[in-house]
# Entry
Amino acid sequence: MPLIHIGGNDKIRKDGAQPLLVFSDGERSMGLAVDGIIDIVEDALDIQVGSERAGVLGSAVVRGHATEIIGHRFIYLPMAFADWFRRKDQRAEKIRAPAAAG
# Structure
């Protein structure tokens, strides 16, 4: 499983535990290494402040705390597998393609 650190691959820990967010699609998975995981929350987001930083969508208040919201889909997933999204689209096209009459 490829590991990508949110701040660059050179920051992945060599010793001790490395907190990871794992994303899977079919048979492929990738780990997004982070400095720490404080909490896991499922909630609607209202991003109030945009960001110029690559991979960061902006900031939102989550359970009373200012929180950076990362854009993992378009930045980090393709870093692990360049065809992360294209491969899924290609499978869908094959399913929709009409069978040849013979």
About this structure: Residues 2 and 80 are 6 Å apart (CA to CA). The first strand starts at residue 3 and ends at 5. The beta strands are 3-5, 20-25, 28-33, 49-50, 56-62, 65-70. The chain has three helices and six strands.
